[in-house]
Amino acid sequence: MFKISEISCINIGLPLIETIHMSNVTITKSNSIIIKIRNNYGQIGWGEAAASLSMTGESANSMIAAINYIKEKIIGKNIEDIKDIYRIISRSIYGNFAAKSAVEMALIDLLGINQKKPFSQLIGKKIRHELPIIWRISGSEKEIQNALKKRDEGFVAFKIKVGAKDLSYDLKRAENLRKILGDEIQLTADANGGYCPKDAINFSKRSQSVGLDYFEQPVNGADLYTMKQCNKIPNVLISADEGIHTIYDLHKHYKMKACEGGSLKLIKFGSINTLIQATKYMKEKKMHTNISGKAGDSSISAAAIGNISMVLPKLDWYSNVSIQYLGDDIIKIPHEITDGKLKVVEGPGLGLSVNEEKLEYYKI
């Protein structure tokens, strides 16, 4: 058992190797809130959540305000096991899922360090050891050459960001990538809700002919009617992302036949326990499953995604982390991606050693 003694947070922006072009936003650097929690033994746990008004409605400033509110509620609390963490975080504040997820992550990391157990052992039972991850293709002038290089390095799944330019242009990109990558590669497109209904339906109709395995979030997350129309088109699988923030959202999509699978993010669900329950529901309903971070997350988030991925009951649409796109990181020994797979550090908690000088350097 330990007592929560101190909680602090820092707003950071990490450099990216190249600009990320998405349908509704262009990202030139990351923006995350990093959580540091110290217990009465002086041990430290780390957490992270991306600020994303378009995804969760939480800005960096609103997350900091929420974390300061949560801090007043939980400092001095005793933590004996993971159930204590799930309980105090769920009761700490209404909504604010990204902020809550970062604090929860740091507490579970701290619990693992205190009990000398890996993060994955605290949240479930490890059922996989290899974690193939998705390589994101987001509008670079050399995206064909880069994709071919990554395929040769061992990546087996690629996701094209579409919706920032003309529909025909994006379809041609997909067609060219399928030709060069080959049929064994999982190739998908993600519009991040950026298409109007007409373009979403037209893109869906062409998805199979240009070689896409599935099409993610064609329209605004609230537009389940158009999602259903896209999903009715033969030979195309539709995935939801921005439209899924709760298990109830998953159920609505399933009942309406608005998608065949989905991308789950911890910042949307607010708790690892809830996210795991969501994947159990998806397995029961034979829905395809992906777990993802946000563009520009550091190795703290990547470590959590990796540990969560190892215990999920279904993960046929793979995991998605962002450390491969960073120009720098805040971890002394960053996680490795080898042969297209994330190498999760084995150790107490998340197994991380944070470089606090870099944390201060990238402070916003």
Any key phrases for this structure?
single chain, 364 residues, alpha/beta, Enolase-like, domain 1, TIM Barrel, 2 domains, eight-stranded parallel β-sheet, four-stranded antiparallel β-sheet, 38% helix
Spans of 5+ residues with little confidence (pLDDT < 50)? none
Please provide the ordered H/E string of secondary-structure elements. EEEEEHEHHHEHEHEHEHEHEHHEHEEEH
Taking the alpha carbons of the first and last residues, their distance comes to: 35 Å
CATH class of the largest domain: Alpha Beta
Reported CATH architecture of the largest domain: Alpha-Beta Barrel
Q: How would you summarize what this structure contains?
A:
Helix content is 38%, strand content 21%.
Structure description:
- The structure is a single chain.
- This protein folds into two domains: 2-117 and 354-361, Enolase-like, domain 1 (2-Layer Sandwich); 123-343, Enolase-like C-terminal domain (TIM Barrel, Alpha-Beta Barrel).
- Helix content is 38%, strand content 21%.
- It contains 13 helices and 16 strands.
- The protein has helices spanning 60-74, 82-90, 97-115, 119-123, 143-152, 167-181, 197-207, 224-231, 247-256, 266-269, 272-284, 299-311, 356-361; strands spanning 2-12, 15-21, 26-29, 32-39, 44-50, 78-79, 134-137, 157-161, 186-190, 214-216, 238-240, 261-264, 288-292, 319-320, 336-338, 341-343.
- The strands form four sheets. The protein has an eight-stranded parallel sheet with strand order 7-8-9-10-11-12-13-14. Strands 5-4-1-6 form a four-stranded antiparallel sheet. The chain has a two-stranded antiparallel ribbon with strand order 2-3.
- Helix 1 crosses helix 3 (97-115) and helix 2 (82-90) packs antiparallel against helix 3 (97-115).
- The longest helix has 19 residues, at 97-115.
- It is globular and about 60 Å long.
